[in-house]
Amino acid sequence: MRLQDEPDIPAQINIVPMIDVIFAILTFFIMSTLFLTRSEGLPVNLPKAATGQAERPAQVTVTIDKSGKMFLDKQLISLEQLENGVRQKVQPQQQMMVVINADEGVNHGQVVAVMDLVRRVEGAKLAIATQKP
Question: Residue 64 phi/psi, 5° resolution?
């Protein structure tokens, strides 16, 4: 039997256990994604070698100065000869990076023409050199 003097206690939902469960699930997902990194091979103990070097792809530089002169690895070259010059430097079955160093005052059309010629060469990847402000 209930007395009339006792006030009714409103229903309450305790969210502390729910927050604990959410943090536990969040921790599980964070930890599981750390182990989902893609590896390129099976885990092995690699041997050590003192003469080993990291292999960088071959690199050729095409420079266009402010007057519009073009150089392939510091040798003056014309736009017509550029494609053949780059093609001669590409080794078969090997990727080569062609870096374009163009002065900021060079006509945009000339840079696009150089990029178009370099893209025609099979095995040549294109990069443009910039400078941080």
Answer: -120, 115
Burial state string for 11-38 with b = 16 or more CB within 10 A and e = fewer than 16: eeeeeeeeeeeeeeeeeeeeeeeeeeee
Identify any residues that bridge with 128 across adjacent strands, giving them in sequence order.
Answer: 100
- 10 Å CB burial of residue 82 (0-12, 13-18, 19+) is buried
Which residue in 71, 123, 80, 77 sits closest to 100, CA to CA?
A: 71
Residue 23 is predicted with a pLDDT of 95
Task: Tally helices (H) and strands (E) across the chain.
Answer: 3, 5
> Hey, what are 133's tokens?
């402000």
Instruction: Please report which confidence band the pLDDT of residue 120 belongs to, taking 50, 70 and 90 as the band edges.
Output: confident
**Per the confidence metrics, is the pTM higher than 0.90?**
no
Q: What is the mean pLDDT of residues 42-70?
A: 77
Residue with more model confidence, 5 or 122: 122
Q: Which domains does the chain have, with CATH numbers?
A: 58-128 (3.30.420.270)
Q: Find out whether 114 and 63 touch, Cβ atoms under 8 Å.
A: no
Nearest to 131 by CA among 110, 104, 112: 104
